[in-house]
Amino acid sequence: MSTRLLFSGTPYSTLPHKYIRPESERPKLSEVATCDDVPVIDLGCGDRNLIVRQIGDACRHYGFFQVINHGVSKKVIEDMLKVAHEFFNLSVEEKMKLYSDDPSKTMRLSTSFNVKKETVHNWRDYLRLHCYPLEKYAPEWPSNPPTLRDAVKIYVTEVRQVGFKIEEAISESLGLDPQCFKNVLGEQGQHMAVNFYPPCPEPELTYGLPAHTDPNALTILLQDLQVAGLQVLKDGKWLAVKPRPDAFVINIGDQLQALSNGKYKSVWHRAIVNTDKPRMSVASFLCPGEDALISAPKPLLGDGMPAVYRDFTYPEYYSKFWSRNLDQEHCLELFKN
Ligand code: OGA
Ligand code: NI
User: C or N: which end of the chain has fewer Cβ atoms within 10 Å?
Assistant: First the structure.
């Protein structure tokens, strides 16, 4: 039987046993430090060389960073979060009409991560939408709440442009033409996960999302404006990323790790939960076009730097990704030369 949605509005008083991690896999929250120096890059500063340099440094040393003055207005972000809250506050009966645990569906509401493959579940419900091309996918998005489609359309269109700007700077920071990665990635797909983490009676025993890397090219994350929960692995330690209402958190996905020939890392990250407040996040994923061949550009090879990964396409990668459990070894390891 499939797992039902977690969030009905009625709080849980104990953690159901299928969410309890074995002792060795627990988040050990008391050992997590808050990261006060997550790089913040001002995309509106007007100094392109500085932006490229800062993004290069952040990619080399962190694998993630925040961007401010990114060009998406406060109103667009607030409207996105508002419809997301309204959506998850719908009745369970209404939401169950959209429930599916089939990852190949282009629109679905689901829970945990990969219900059919995993042995322990995660304390998360999520709405997953394909977003590009809009004309193709927007008609299948939820029609309730009635404002959802318009709010999401504007949001995803603007976020796409932010993602492109960042991909250009990433490309340039590796000494490549700014358009190089975008050209290799082709007509990029775009997906969105609207994550909802209900209050959890025993946050020490479970995850919202366990440690994972994102399989796509670039992730643009809108964290809950108030409630923290994102943690990133840096130099072997888990660090909490404080929410900053004017920023997106950006992380390199597996595809950019492959395209950079391993120079930039797709960083391990996880979401933890808390006892008293629900948390929301909106993750936007840019993905290689279906026909794009993921192959590190020539200038990054040679001189004793052979290609670290074999060439592959995203459909091949993606099916491998979803055939696994989320917190296994880095999926890219399976594509090493
Ligand atoms: C994701 C993710 C983190 C968060 O959706 O891939 O890592 O804070 N989300 O919700
Ligand atoms: Ni992620």
Answer: N
Domain 31-335 in this protein, CATH class: mainly beta
Q: Is the pLDDT of residue 1 over 60?
A: no
- pLDDT mean across residues, the chain: 94
pLDDT digits (tens, 9 = 90+) for 93-104: 999 999 998 988
What ranges do the domains of the chain cover?
31-335
CB 225 within 8 Å of CB 196: no
Q: How far is the CA of 189 from the centre of ligand 2 (A)?
A: 17
State the distance from the centre of ligand 1 to the C-alpha of 94, rounded, in angstroms. Answer: 25
Q: Please state, in angstroms and as integers, the Cα–Cα distance from residue 265 to each residue in 44, 168, 270, following that order.
A: 25, 17, 16
The answer to whether the CB of 281 is under 6 A from ligand 1 is: yes
Question: Hey, which of 127, 223, 269 would you mutate to test ligand 1's pocket, going by the most ligand atoms within 8 Å of its Cβ?
Answer: 269
Q: How confident is the model at residue 118 (pLDDT cuts 50, 70, 90)?
A: confident
Question: Does position 211 have pLDDT exceeding 90, yes or no?
Answer: yes
**C-alpha 302 to ligand 1 mean position (Å):** 35
Burial class (CB in 10 A: 0-12, 13-18, 19+), 236: exposed
